[in-house]
């Protein structure tokens, strides 16, 4: 008969925990989460504020994507007003540590839509002009002015990764949340 070794409980103090990998050790420092909050917060506040300051220019940029119906005009106008405000609120929430997972999810959703829209527009320019894809540059409406597509898409992918870090993290950071709603869960 085969003899079995007794199964050890992982809560047993005699069982040493497995050593952490370098990625886990970095994660425990909270530095990646802090960087994600700061970068996303600043980017969203800056881009939203830029659009908010000149809504007519942003409206012109929105029209170039042909994503919303131009008639009746209220959908386009509403987007040109609400989207920048939403970006600023999202950025402030991330910087202040308020409802960070919700703000991260909003940032993630916006970034995915923006990235897909910019890529589709660039592919359209590529098909219309035949110019090399990485030489395509236009004002995407993000507030950064004319930018090359081969710079914008990787930049957005990096921001998407930071958003995923914020959404997936369960690690608390120092925040103003206890002052705002002491008993409410992060949502």
Question: What are the key terms here?
Answer:
187 residues; mainly alpha; globular
Write up what this structure looks like.
The chain has 187 residues and is mainly α. It has one domain. It has seven helices and two strands, in the order H-H-H-H-H-E-E-H-H. The chain has a two-stranded antiparallel ribbon with strand order 1-2. Strand 1 (137-139) and strand 2 form a beta hairpin. Helix 2 (31-53) runs antiparallel to helix 4. It is globular. The mean pLDDT is 82.
Low-confidence stretches: none
* Rg of Cα set: 22 Å
The run of helices and strands is HHHHHEEHH
Q: How would you sum up the global shape? A: globular
According to DSSP, the number of beta strands is 2
Write a compact overview of the structure shown.
This protein has helices spanning 22-28, 31-53, 55-63, 74-96, 100-129, 149-168, 177-180, and strands at 137-139, 146-148.
Task: Note the topology.
Elements: H1 22-28, H2 31-53, H3 55-63, H4 74-96, H5 100-129, E1 137-139, E2 146-148, H6 149-168, H7 177-180
Antiparallel strand pairs: 1-2
Helix pairs in contact: 2-4, 2-6, 3-4, 4-5, 5-6
